[in-house]
Amino acid sequence: MNKKDLRVIKTKNMLYTTLISLMREKRFEEIKVSDICSQALINRSTFYSHYNDKYELLADYINDLKKSLLLELEKNKNTLNTKEYYLEMIKLFLNHIDEKREIYLSTVINNHNSIMMDIVYDVLVHDISSDLKKEENNQIPRDIIAKFYLGAVVSVGIEWLKNGKQYTKEELLEYFDVLIPNELNYKR
User: Fold this and answer.
1) What is the average pLDDT across 159-180?
2) What is residue 118's three-state secondary structure?
3) Which residues contact 161 (CB under 8 A, 6 or more apart)?
4) 52 pLDDT above the threshold of 90
5) pLDDT of res. 66
6) Element (H, E) at 35
7) Phi/psi of residue 164, each to 5°?
8) Residues β-bridged to residue 141
9) How confident is the model at residue 113 (pLDDT cuts 50, 70, 90)?
């Protein structure tokens, strides 16, 4: 990688960090490009050489977050059954929320960014749907199972984040272990 690429990476990381920091203080709509540049200690021309506006910056950042969640979920490929898969997926999702806590707080909690939640939801639905194709039972349609459990996982994850991690990840996983049946049957 050459120096220019490293400068671009550093600049984008600084812009990401600054945007998240500002979103902790105020709503995204109230943030101006000049606020981002001032706090990031860069010129407006530098900002505009990378992004057309703050919306493009946010979209780029959310896309990077999506990629990191996809990479995290790829670790969940060696499960024996559907219940084990769900528990591991939940653990990976909670780890992602925990590692990216400031991002989730700034975008989802403080700014109620539905685009961010839609992306997270889509990534998880895709992962669940891919895994369910391996199963051969046929009582409930796959998409119903995926959306049912996903709704619960995302809701609990967001509440866990909102409430300052009232429960530990281990406690949540124990609760999900009880809530998820050992055998899930669905239609192909």
Assistant:
1) 86
2) helix
3) 97, 101, 104, 105, 108, 109
4) yes
5) 84
6) helix 33-40
7) 65, 35
8) 187
9) low
